[in-house]
Design goal:
With 200 residues, this protein is mainly alpha-helical. The protein has a single domain, classed as Vanadium-containing Chloroperoxidase, domain 1, CATH 1.20.144. 78% of the residues lie in helices and 0% in strands.
């Protein structure tokens, strides 16, 4: 079933190469951009004010990192070949990795970040989830993964987010208080500048 769905998508993309070209950038740059967006949530928190967005940012990055680490453990236990390694004639001009394909690292990290944000803020988290879905779909479109690799990545990301948000919150809150001692003095002048400028 996994191969049949993958093969159907792959054949369609091979006849609509512009789709692969578009998703090439979505899936390759998307994970880095979603991580940058998580960092931006920290910058959106006014120094000395509510720490909510700092906690969201820290939780998202921790969840994405945990998802990646969990994947490495799974890879060590099962080295599932990439689709183009297991089947001849696969269209994959933008993917040539030969490391384990299950679960998808991109998907685990992206969904880990997105679900962590979603668990703490539904509106902003929904936007992150849309981005994560596009990244996951992109991994199949460019031929890098079977659909189940991405679904497994989603599950790893969700599990990582739950662990981080539900169990790791006290530790992250402590780390946020430590890190903000360094970032708040740097960000306060910027906040003051833009706040003063917008009120003129």
């Amino acid at each position: 079933m996994d191969w049949r769905v993958y093969h159907a998508i792959n054949v369609w993309v091979s006849h609509h190469e512009w789709v692969g070209r578009v998703f090439r950038y979505v899936e390759s740059d998307g994970t880095a951009l979603i991580a940058v967006a998580a960092v931006a949530l920290w910058l959106a928190a006014r120094p000395g004010a509510d720490r909510k967005w700092k906690l969201v940012a820290a939780s998202a990055l921790a969840s994405g990192a945990l998802g990646y680490v969990v994947n490495q453990v799974i890879h060590a236990l099962w080295d599932r070949p990439r689709p183009y390694e297991a089947h001849a004639g696969v269209f994959h001009p933008y993917s040539s990795s030969t490391d384990a394909g299950f679960p998808s690292d991109h998907s685990s990290a992206a969904f880990g970040i997105a679900f962590a944000v979603f668990l703490l803020d539904r509106v902003v988290g929904s936007l992150f989830l849309v981005a994560a879905v596009l990244i996951g779909v992109g991994r199949v479109v460019v031929g890098a993964h079977y659909p189940f690799d991405v679904i497994a990545g989603l599950a790893v990301g969700l599990g990582s987010a739950i662990v981080v948000v539900r169990l790791g919150r006290p530790a992250l809150a402590f780390l946020v208080r430590l890190v903000e001692r360094a970032t708040d003095p740097l960000l306060r002048p910027l906040w003051t500048y833009f706040s003063t400028g917008s009120s003129r």
